[in-house]
Amino acid sequence: MTIEDPTRELLADPYPVYARLRESAPVQRMTGPEGLPVWYVTRYDDIREALADPRLSLDKRNGLPGGYRGFRLPPALDANLLNMDPPDHTRIRRLVTRAFTPRRIEELRKPIRRIADELLDTMTSPGRTDLIASYAGPLPIVVICELLGVPVDSRHDFRTWTDDLFVPDPAHPERAGEAVRSMIEFFTWLLAHKRSHPGEDLVSALVAVRERTGPEGIDDRLGSDELMSLVFLILFAGYENTVQLMGTSVLALFNHPDQMAALRADLSGMPAAVEEFVRHESPLALALRRFPLEDVTIAGVTIPAGETVILCLSAANRDPARFPDPDRLDLSRDTTGHLALGHGIHYCLGAPLARLETEVALTALLERFPRLELDTEADEPKWRPSIRARGLITLPVRY
Q1: Domain 7-398 class in CATH
Q2: Cα–Cα 20 to 30 A to 303, which of 17, 224, 264, 292?
Q3: What is the chain's alpha carbon radius of gyration, rounded to the nearest angstrom?
């Protein structure tokens, strides 16, 4: 039996919904996005196992005709790792893994701190600001654009594009199509620019792979759609997830003043704190939809081949069977095994960068403003109207 769409409840507060499902129906067929049936999985153990199950495909071609497939993008943006299984996934992921090695990411620590300090310099104390607009939003886009080699004068408003595409305004549905056209136009220009003006950046390296010739490289060459889609994915994921993590981390500290005090007393604990932040409020609430290649049984429930499976990462990370008192932010908690950034071969490629950016950005913020607090005289923080991505649109603060 398929039960009604939980979207309204999930938008208001997802965690009571997840708790109810974990207890009564941990694998449940429901009416999901776009009014189509999907299977929600909400228990930690089941989700961890499913994330690494090769029988659950990300390739949309393995879904039933007419079923839910997720976002509909043109091939120029859709031929990316989020829609691939091995061997294509293995081939393409190998090409970009070297850009996200621990050493390469650690080399970004000083540049990230410089960018953070420059942004904080504009916030004259005492004052008020929307922390998303003034800090959490700008910082990640500058960092990821420097990694990719996007010229300073060409750093468009990616947040507007991604919001229009993934959290569309019902009053302006045409903006989603406009965002797609704008992104394709921009990435077409960027790739052409890197062909004529190559640098030491990641996009230049990927362009070189695309145009490489000779039998020694034939298996690694990127198709044109694969190249553009890969650059789009790195830019989008490297930006969007970090914005959300930074904003929700600060709000969580406001809501748990004892943990704010403990962290301020010892900022060397920030790396461990980031793991608890990402467990407590996963930027990606739902893993990408998957399609069983054959009938698959999860927690005693058989899901037919081709149907859509949604693995609820936020539900897993608040499962009391894995994390005691899971709704409480506890910076001393053992967060080992949280699933906020995935698990298995599709584990988030940019996880080290997101961790480092959040660690550096929050450290700089708390050092600069020892009395940072929620601005209770302003409007309440505004959440994104999305069940997939858990993040803030606004976060008014006083400092």
Answers
A1: mainly alpha
A2: 17
A3: 21
Give the β-pairing of 309-311 and 37-41.
parallel
Distance between CA atoms of residues 396 and 350, nearest Å = 28
Over residues 256-298, the pLDDT tens digits come to 999 999 999 999 999 999 999 999 999 999 999 999 999 999 9
Confidence check: pLDDT of 147 > 80 = yes
Is 320 or 385 the better-scoring residue by pLDDT? 320
Q: pLDDT by residue (tens digit) across 190-225?
A: 999 999 999 988 898 888 876 654 444 444 567 889
Name the residue ranges covered by the structural domains of the chain.
7-398
d(C-alpha 230, C-alpha 56), whole Å: 22
Q: Which residues contact 255 (CB under 8 A, 6 or more apart)?
A: 329
Q: Do residues 195 and 154 touch, judged by C-beta distance below 8 A?
A: no
CB 398, CB 128: distance < 8 Å:
yes
pTM of the model: 0.91
